[in-house]
Amino acid sequence: MNFSGISPKHLVAAFVALVLLSQTAQAETFTFDPAHTTVLWRVRLLGVSKTTGNFTLKQGFLRLDPKAPALNTVKVTINTASLRTGVGRIDTMLKGADFLETDKYPEAAYKSSKVVLDPDGKRAKVAGRLTLHGVTRPVTLYVVLKREAAGTTKRKKPLGFKGVMAIKRSDFGLSKLKSAVSDDVKIIIETQVRP
To answer: In this structure, are strands 184-194 and 38-45 parallel, antiparallel, or unpaired?
Structure first.
């Protein structure tokens, strides 16, 4: 799957359909492991370089029901105040009144609405809605199943995923400094889920 040029954004619903391929036919809830989840974002500066930062996961859940796929849901929440770039003054600016306003909007959340599996069963296109900076917009998440970890039973195996989404920050009321910072933001999620 080619992730370049993905149009529209924060996470994570395709996991629902993908996990169905390796689980039994009973409905089950999976939890994202915060210790094994990374949420990265990337923007272009002045058209010549890229800056990357990260957020921490607050919580993430997958509800899987093989007998009723329309009921499968994913909810993911991140702490916006956890933003880190490695440069203190940039972190302060991005958390402040001109951008994320993390005091006012301490969380961003993604909830799935539809999952479409590729024929190989290890990739999915997920429709969902992202709430960021007090604004909710439809965002597509592209997901790849990276690995099934070894476990004592198949049901208990943790599963690893990579998800990619792209947004325009202006769609979420984040329009400052567009001449210097690209409107396009790519978000990359690496996570492990457990039953």
So the answer is: antiparallel
